[in-house]
Each structure stands twice: as C-alpha cells, then as structure tokens.
Amino acid sequence: MKWLTGNTVDILTALNEDFRLTQEDNQQVEEQVRQIIRQVIQNGDQALKDYSKKFDQVELQELFISQETIDQGYQQVEKEVIAALEAAKENIISYHQKQKQHDFMDTEKTGVLRGQLVLPLARVGVYVPGGTAAYPSSVLMNVLPAKIAGVKEIIMVTPPSVNGVPDVILAAAKIAGVNKIFQIGGAQSIAALAYGTETVPKVDKIVGPGNIYVATAKKQVFGVVGIDMIAGPSEIGILADESANPTYIAADLLSQAEHDTLARTILVTNSISLAEQVEKDIYRQLESLPRKEIAIQAIKNHGRIIIASTIASMFTIMNEIAPEHLEVQLTDPISYLHEIKNAGSIFLGEYASEPVGDYFSGTNHVLPTSGTAKFYSPLGVYDFVKYSQVTYYTKEALAEVKDAITVLARKEGLEAHARAIEYRFD
C-alpha cells in the first residue's frame, strides 16, 4: 500500500492527483458503447443475441426467463440461503419504509390551494451484475425500495452464462417480487431498457451497479430514461486511532479489495503503529483469500494509508475523499457522527463491519462512489417516485395578486403571460 504523510493540504493534493489519473475518460469505451447502443436501437433482439454470443459466449434462443425456470432455480437454492435472503428482505423493508414520502396540500390563504403529489414511476429496469460473482443481495437492494415506492412493473436484466443465470439470482428475484427477467448484460442491456426491443419493454428509469461498460451506457442513455447514479469501482475509507483492532481493519479493507482490481481502500489514522500493524495483517490475510489475485492488485495500486496529525485533520481528509463506505473505528465513534460531511454509508464502531450493510442491516448498498457522495445519496425509495405540483386559485384570490404577476411578466418581456392573467378580469 502507498503511504501518504505530511500536512493536510499536501495529502489532499496527492489524493486528488491519484483520483484524476484513475478517472480519466476512456474514449475507446465511450465509442464502443455508443456503437452498441446504436446497434440495439436498429436491430433490437437480434443485436442482443449477437452481443451475448460475442461477449458472454452464449447463444441464446430466448432472452426472457420463464416463471417455470425461476421457480426451478428457487428450488435448487439451499434452505439456509433462502432463509438468509428472507431475513435480509425483512430488514431492508423495515428500513426503507421509513423513507416513504407523502402528498401534501395547504390552504394557508383564502381561495388558494397548493400541494404536491408523490407519484411512483410506472416501470423500472434493474441491472444485476454477473461475471466473476453472483450478487443476490443487489437484487434485494434495488428491487425492494422500488416495490415500497409503488412501482408497478420491475424489469430485471442480468448477464447470461453457459450454465444460465445463477439459481440464487433467480431465487432473490422471486423473493423480491421482480415482474420480468431477461438474460442480457453489459451496455446492450442498458440500451434495451432505455429504448425497448421486440421483447424487452422500455422503462422509465434504470438502476443498479455494473462495470465500466454498464456505467458508460447509463451515462449515454440518461435523458432518454432516468438513472440512479453512475457508479465507479467499490471503495472503503476507514478512520481509526490507536484503540482500533488492526486485524478487523485489514479484513474490512480486503472486503472491498476483493470486488475489483480497481477498488479503492483507504485507511486514515493518527497512529503510525496501527498503520504498520494493519499493513502487515493485510498481506497475512491475503495469503488465504480465494480472490487473492484481484484483491492484491487493488491493494497495491489503489490502497492508501494516510497518516494525519490530529483527529480533526483525519475528518477533513476523509470528508474530501467522500467514500462510498466509511467506517469510524475511533474511541466513542458515535460522538463523531456530526463531523462526517460526505459519505455514502457510515459504519460506527468495530462491530459495524461494512459487510453488515452489504447484506443484512437493511441500509442500502447501492451507493455513490468516486467522491460523488458530496452530492449523491444512497439508493432509496425516493429514487422511484416523482413529484407533481398542484395549484388552485379562486377568482377572488387571483384578483388580489394579479397586478404583481403582470408586473413581473412584463419586466421579463413576456406580454402574453401578463395578458393571460388580465383577460380573466376584462
């Protein structure tokens, strides 16, 4: 891991340079994705089948996965896994139900009614990653908030494989209440959801994490449909002092490093001794890690140990990083909660390990990455609704304010606006 020391300004400068180098636009990917989207628009289902053969080495006869196949997949999953998914579902629902927002109307002035309607989206597309691992937890995290919001139709897409879609993904979709599943992945699946094909319905919004091709496709179709966010590689930041357990910290850093060779793992501490122990333990734990080759690349290339002089400077640095996952392993961690300004999901204390949030606490694990926690939020019920404003005036109420309206309209040079009010009183 690379160590950064010095004053706060120098550390932040070094981090910003690291970030700039890893976030440079990949023009080749942009153009490849643009071409894929164009082909899906022009050739529909056939393009999806061609790309599945090219990228996934799977020749598909059908894109749609039948209910019978879903039910069979569910039956193949171990009972303890089903029980764990059901328990996680219960926690996710209990947490996200508290995010529901409601209509309001006010009649503060005589003859005037103002309000807001909270309306669920009609149809949402959920992307569930495939590739090197299966992510049933992502199914629950994306689908259940949409169900709570009142979305009527949820379309799930996930990459195919020579052995079909993993049974555990089908089981999670059944448990969450997905309406339709299509075995398509990559940029081509995002194009299908955005524009529709002969069999894949066009959706109103696309959510869910994916690789660089999926993220780039979501960026390119934004405006045709809504998207949740453009997610980058996974990341974790840990704030720790001399009281923290180095073995726990090493394990938590590796829990993100095993996701992706581009994953970012950052420890910020005021204890050189702790930092040395953590680094030593990381390499000890790596030896027995099944995804060692992935994790070791992430740790070597994107792992950082930052030594700060004070706890205050530790928070300054971490707030600038704005990590996707933030662990606070300081003495009395809850007392520092309001020092945190930018983070996707916050984990307080040595027993709130980040995987608790990934799987079970009920908080969402679809989170802003790459510093976007400064302006984005975790996926939630609010991502699956839209708002319509409501206005009602009686003639008497409008008469009281008509002169103010026409003055403003004419000041902006919009005479028809002014006349639209005045005609009601001529």
Helix/strand-derived category reads: alpha/beta
Major sheet details: 6 strands, parallel
What count of structural domains?
A: 3
What is the CATH topology descriptor of the largest domain? Rossmann fold
Q: What gap, in angstroms, lies between the N and C termini?
A: 77 Å
Tally of DSSP β-strands: 14
CATH architectural name of the largest domain: 3-Layer(aba) Sandwich
Spatial sequence of strands, sheet with the most strands:
1-11-10-9-12-13
Helices and strands, in order, run as EHHHHEEEHEHEHEHEEHEHHEHEEHEHH
Shape designation: globular
Quick take:
The chain has 426 residues and is an alpha/beta fold. It has helices at 8-22, 27-56, 67-76, 79-96, 136-149, 167-176, 186-195, 212-221, 246-257, 272-286, 292-302, 311-321, 354-359, 395-411, 415-422, and strands spanning 2-4, 104-106, 112-120, 123-127, 153-157, 180-182, 205-207, 226-227, 235-240, 264-269, 303-307, 325-329, 345-348, 385-393. It has three domains: 27-227, Nitrogenase molybdenum iron protein domain (Rossmann fold, 3-Layer(aba) Sandwich); 233-374, Nitrogenase molybdenum iron protein domain (Rossmann fold), CATH 3.40.50.1980; 394-422, no CATH class.
